[in-house]
Design a protein that fits this description.
This protein has about 250 residues and is of the alpha/beta class. The chain has one domain: TIM Barrel. Helices cover about 45% and strands about 20% of the residues. The chain contains 13 helices and nine strands. The protein has an eight-stranded parallel β-barrel with strand order 1-3-4-5-6-7-8-9, surrounded by eight helices. Helix 1 runs parallel beside helix 3 and helix 4 runs parallel beside helix 6.
Length: about 250
């Protein structure tokens, strides 16, 4: 499983100040996203996730200069979310240096034409962002019956989507996510949700492809280098049981 550092971009800067040597009293704090990106790549990151916060509000990429600076500083894939509401926005992100994009589910869930147009632009490098909270799925103004999470995933896979990014998940969701990860031909990435090494390892054991972490890495709650070393160890031969996930959820 990949552990993917995430940077929130706002007005050309990182929303969070990164101080890589805070625990040891070394290093210099910075909010320059290209410097932060370079540090994580030097630590071994093979992919970065960028969230364009201003773009998410505006409905179109806004931090293109910052994305471009990052793309010049590092030679790893850059997955960009925020403001990717259609094919035109995806093209802007690619022009800025993105190599992968994440479109929100609501932009494509009931518009196959929009989904197919996005796929024509991004191909296999398109991901769809999905919120794991059942109430958010129910709140969307569907034109028909509310589809299940699994039905939406099946639809996306049938249309050619090769990866999804699931946010707002908890440890309680991991058994269901594990079934989907092993039963549907879609690469599953989880965003956030892990604040300690045990949960990081549990996501690996659930069979997901990548775990995207931002603030947890910035604060040092999860040490990137230590976590990546732990991830190279063998996972259990069988998925964790519901009881084991419940034990984790209860602390």
């Amino acid at each position: 499983m990949l552990l993917v550092p995430s940077l929130d971009l706002k007005t050309g800067r990182s929303r969070l100040v990164f101080w890589p040597g805070a625990a040891s009293g070394t290093g210099n704090p910075t909010d320059r996203p290209e410097q932060i990106a370079r540090t994580f790549v030097e630590l071994g990151a093979t992919m970065l996730h960028l969230v364009d916060l201003d773009g998410a509000v505006q409905g179109s990429p806004a931090n293109t200069d910052a994305i471009q600076r990052i793309s010049r500083a590092v030679a790893v894939p850059l997955q960009v979310a925020g403001g990717m509401d259609g094919p035109e926005q995806i093209e802007l992100a690619f022009a800025a240096g993105a190599t992968r994009v994440v479109v929100p589910l609501w932009a494509v869930a009931e518009s196959v034409d929009t989904l197919r147009a996005c796929l024509r632009v991004a191909g296999d490098w398109l991901a769809v962002g999905m919120d794991a909270r059942p109430e958010r799925l129910r709140e969307y103004p569907w034109h028909g019956p509310v589809p299940s999470f699994e039905a939406l995933l099946e639809m996306l896979a049938t249309e050619g989507v090769r990866r999804v990014v699931i946010s707002h998940w908890t440890v309680d969701d991991l058994p269901r996510i594990s079934v989907m990860a092993r039963g549907i031909d879609v690469e599953i990435q989880l965003a956030g949700g892990a604040t300690d090494l045990e949960t990081v390892l549990a996501t690996r054991d659930a069979g997901v492809h990548a775990l995207i972490l931002g603030e947890t890495l910035f604060t040092g709650a999860v040490d990137y280098s230590a976590a990546t070393r732990s991830l190279t160890q063998l996972a259990p031969a069988a998925p964790l049981t519901q009881a084991e996930y419940q034990r984790m959820a209860n602390g």
